[in-house]
């Protein structure tokens, strides 16, 4: 497919997303199934155009004076990819499978449009209703952080310490230009292409042999801040696909008792193969029984040294990777996540022993899911738990990171502009006694 034909296809996919309010991945998959002539390179190129347009949906619509799929793609080519108006006109020429020729007003807006007078939620490309919460945490750095959140995310991997160290893994990834991550000692960052796509690391021999896992540096740092050690019993309460479970196993050198579970058994499905590949030892406890699921952790109540709560959240800190998710987020979704966070925190509180610790993690920038959730847990606990100072945790488990962090009332916040990671929040709580 020509670049112009890819633009036309991207407009078609964006129209499907807007019309049916569906995830971008689903719309792209359906487009590919209905256009089997398109090769993998074409599908990848179209996906990059679609995701870039979603990253800049508000600002692109602002400069074009129109929020149609065509206008949003046009604006994103200017804002996200930096194409000048003549270059965009060459793609939108109406010939063959190209989109219709640029109208006079479209060309003028591409040449003259700017964001000088745009309100913050437009310039920052976020839903207006979340802006007050983002302002509360980001303050004067609001716009730089939102702009960083609208850029493409890097491709990070975590070298598996059970197999070897970072230096040993680097030669096998040299052809991809892998370089050490700024903060995580086991992390490597692999350059992405001009289209925003990284190499297919999942087919590399080293990946298949369990030498590394794809994991954002912020997620690696969050796992490190649990401080898990050999000889301890550690529970990953919301393990999902097992990314942090594997990191915990590497952190303890398989020298502790590691238990992974999740309220949704479907999310646990990938963990078994990942454990096998990595050589990590962990008990996977899968709930059964539909809505009335059995409690698979009852025998551990009051005996666990550390509980990691990688809580269900809105994912606002991962909008670089999932730009369509921000436009589907609604206040009701936030309320549902807050309720779920209270439930898993309370469950963690019953598991941890006196003197044990809970590490509460979200990939969110919203205080309602972070400090507010911790404050609610502390209030419900009636003095049974206390916050461990976040700077103390960072200095102990991620030396040198503190200067880049944003410290909050109860925890610490990573963010794209400050730490170059996704927007992870970490708070540590200890049980009295």
Describe the 3D structure.
- With 433 residues, the protein is an alpha/beta fold.
- 42% of the residues lie in helices and 14% in strands.
- Strands 5, 6, 7, 8, 9, 10, 11, 12 and 13 form a 9-stranded mixed sheet that branches. Strands 2-3-1-4 form a 4-stranded antiparallel sheet, with no helix packed on it.
- Strand 5 (233-236), helix 14 and strand 6 (257-261) form a beta-alpha-beta unit.
- The protein is globular, with a radius of gyration of 23 Å.
- Unreliable parts: none
How big a fraction of the residues is strand? Answer: 5-15%
Compute the gyration radius: what is it? 23 Å
Q: What is the distance, rounded to the nearest whole angstrom, between the alpha carbons of the first and last residues?
A: 66 Å
- Percent range of helical residues: 40-55%
The main sheet comes to:
9 strands, mixed
Number of separate strands: 13
The number of distinct helices, counting runs of at least 4 residues, comes to 20
SSE-based structural type: alpha/beta
Mean of residue pLDDT values: 95
Shape designation: globular
At a glance:
The chain is an alpha/beta fold and 433 residues long.
Defining key terms:
14% strand; alpha/beta; globular; 433 residues; four-stranded antiparallel beta sheet; 42% helix; nine-stranded mixed beta sheet
Compile the SSE list and pairings.
Elements: H1 3-20, H2 24-34, H3 40-55, H4 57-64, H5 69-79, H6 85-91, H7 104-112, H8 120-123, H9 131-138, H10 142-149, E1 155-159, H11 166-169, E2 179-180, E3 187-190, H12 205-208, E4 212-214, H13 217-224, E5 233-236, H14 243-252, E6 257-261, H15 271-278, E7 283-285, E8 304-310, H16 323-328, H17 331-351, E9 352-362, H18 371-381, E10 385-388, H19 390-397, E11 406-407, E12 412-413, H20 416-419, E13 425-431
Parallel strand pairs: 5-6, 5-8, 6-7, 8-9
Antiparallel strand pairs: 1-3, 1-4, 2-3, 9-13, 10-13, 11-12, 12-13
Helix pairs in contact: 1-2, 1-3, 2-3, 3-5, 4-5, 13-14, 17-18
């Amino acid at each position: 497919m020509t670049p112009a034909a890819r633009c036309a296809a991207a407009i078609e996919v964006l129209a499907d997303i807007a019309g049916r309010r569906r995830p971008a991945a689903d719309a792209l998959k359906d487009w590919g199934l209905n256009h089997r002539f398109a090769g993998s390179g074409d599908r990848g190129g179209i996906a990059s155009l679609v995701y870039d347009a979603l990253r800049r949906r508000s600002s692109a619509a602002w400069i074009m004076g129109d929020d149609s799929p065509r206008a949003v793609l046009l604006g994103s080519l200017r804002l996200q990819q930096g194409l000048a108006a003549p270059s965009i006109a060459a793609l939108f020429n109406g010939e063959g499978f190209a989109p219709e020729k640029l109208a006079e007003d479209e060309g003028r807006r591409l040449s003259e449009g700017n964001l000088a007078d745009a309100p913050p939620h437009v310039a920052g490309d976020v839903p207006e209703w979340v802006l007050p919460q983002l302002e509360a945490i980001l303050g004067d750095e609001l716009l730089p952080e939102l702009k960083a959140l609208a850029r493409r995310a890097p491709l990070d991997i975590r070298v598996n310490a059970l197999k070897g160290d970072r230096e040993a893994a680097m030669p096998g990834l040299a052809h991809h230009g892998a370089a050490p991550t700024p903060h995580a000692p086991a992390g490597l960052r692999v350059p992405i292409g001009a289209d925003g796509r990284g190499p297919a690391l999942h087919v590399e021999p080293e990946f298949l042999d369990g030498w590394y896992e794809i994991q954002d540096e912020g997620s690696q740092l969050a796992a490190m801040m649990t401080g898990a050690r050999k000889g301890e019993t550690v529970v990953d309460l919301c393990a999902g696909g097992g990314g942090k479970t594997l990191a915990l196993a590497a952190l303890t050198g398989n020298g502790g008792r590691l238990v992974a579970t999740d309220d949704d058994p479907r999310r646990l499905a990938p963990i078994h193969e990942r454990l096998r590949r990595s050589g990590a030892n962990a008990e996977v406890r899968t709930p059964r029984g539909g809505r009335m699921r059995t409690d698979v952790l009852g025998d551990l109540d009051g005996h666990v040294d550390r509980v990691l709560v990688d809580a269900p959240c809105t994912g606002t800190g991962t909008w670089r990777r999932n730009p369509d998710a921000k436009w589907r987020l609604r206040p009701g979704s936030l309320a549902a996540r807050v309720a779920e966070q209270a439930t898993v925190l309370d469950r963690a509180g019953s598991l941890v022993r006196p003197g044990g610790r809970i590490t509460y993690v979200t990939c969110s920038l919203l205080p309602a899911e972070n400090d507010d959730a911790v404050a609610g847990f502390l209030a419900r606990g009636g003095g049974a738990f206390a916050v461990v100072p976040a700077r103390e945790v960072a200095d102990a488990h991620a030396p040198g990171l503190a200067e880049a962090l944003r410290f909050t009332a109860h925890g610490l916040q990573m963010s794209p502009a400050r730490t170059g990671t996704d927007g992870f929040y970490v708070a540590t709580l200890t049980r009295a006694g």
